[in-house]
Amino acid sequence: MSDHLAGGYDLVVFDLDGVVFLIDKPIPGAAGAIDRLRSGATPIAFATNNASRRAADVAALLTGMGVNAEPAEVLTSAGAAAALLAERLPAGAPVLVVGAEALRAEVRDAGLTPVGTAEDEPVAVVQGYGPEVGWKILAEATLAVRAGAAWYATNTDRTLPSPRGPLPGNGSLVAVLRTALGRDPDVVVGKPQPGLFRTAAAQSRAQRPLAVGDRLDTDIQGAVTAGMDSLLVLTGVSGPADLLAAPADRRPTYVAADLSALFRPAGESRLPAVGDEARPGDAARLPVSGVESGSGDGARLPVSGVESGSGDGARLPVSGVESGSGDGARVPVSEVGAGLGVSGDEVPWTELGGWRLTRDADRVTLDGSGSPVDALRLLCSATWTGVATSAITGGSDEARELVKSWNLPEAT
Length: 412
Ligand SMILES: [Mg+2]
Description:
Residues 353-408 form the GCN5-related N-acetyltransferase-like domain. This protein is α/β, with parallel strands linked by helices.
C-alpha cells in the first residue's frame, strides 16, 4: 500500500471547497478517490473553513454527491468557533452572530445565547461566511465590538472558489469590519490556525496525517503550522503562479492536478524540500534577503539572492551570478538545488519528466515537454531557492505555452 502517496499516511484530512466540490458541484474524480481510500481502510476527515454549514449538513451534502461521510468526520470552523467561545464564556452568554443559520445553531448548541443586535449587549461577536450577510448585521457587529465585545472570525479566506471564479469569502466580509473599526479580529479560528487539523488528528489518533487542500494561505499554511505533510491540488483557488511564489511557510509537500495523485507513487507529486525555515530547531537555515541557505549545510551562504553551491566551498556567488565550473556563466540549476532532492535525490533538478531547466545568470529557461505538474515541480526547485518568477522563460514551444498559461510575468 505504501507504494502510493496515500499509503504513507494513517489519516487524510480533506478540505472541501476546491478539493471535493466547488460550492455544490462535485469535482470529477473526488468521490471515487475518497471511496477508494475508505476501501483501503485509510481513515478520513474533512476540515472546512466554511462556516455556513453544520457537520451533519456537510456529511449529508457529501453523501448526496456520492461521498460517504459521517458527521463525526467533519470539522467546521463554525463548530470550532462555538466550542472555543463556550470554553471562554459563561453559559448562556449573549453572542452576536454574523453569518449563516448554521453558525447560530452551533452557538446555541454550545450553550450560549445567539443575539442579533448590539442592544442585546453581546460579550462576543462571531463572524462567519453567510450568503445573506448584509450591511445591517455588519453595522450591529461594528457597534458591539466598539462597545467592548470580543471579535471572533471563523476564518479569513478572502475568496470562495466557484465555477464562475473566486467569490467574496468571509475574509472579505471581515475586511468590512476591519475597515470600519480600524483593527483586526481578536481571534481567527479556522485554517491557517492549526486547530482543525490537530483536532482531526487527535480524533483519529493519527501519527502521520496528510492534509489535502486547494489554498496555500489556509490549508497548506495550516498544515505547516500543525507539523503535517500536505498535498496541494490545483482544482481550487491557488494556482501554479501562487505555488511558485509561495513563501516557506506555505509550501506543500506535494502538488498534483487532482486527487488521483493519492494513488500514484509519492515521488510523482513530491516538491523540493527547501525553504522550511518555519521548521523549528533548524538553526543552520538562515534566510537572507528573502533567500534561504541550503539544507543544513552551514557553509552555504546565500548572497545577493543566489545560493552558493552544494557544499563546494570554492564556489562563491558574487553579485547575483555564481562562479561557474568552467563553462562560463551558464550554471545548471542542479548545481544550486543539489542535495535538496526529490525522493532521496534520485531525480536531478535539471530534468524532470521530459522537462529541462537551465540557469543563465539570474534567469532560468524551461525546455522540453511533459506534464504541467512536472514542469511546476521542477520550477519550484528554482523559485524556492531564490529565482524570481519573472525570471522564468520558456525555451520550447510547449514550455512557452505553459508559462504563458500560468500568467507568470514574462522575463525581459
Ligand atoms: Mg478550499
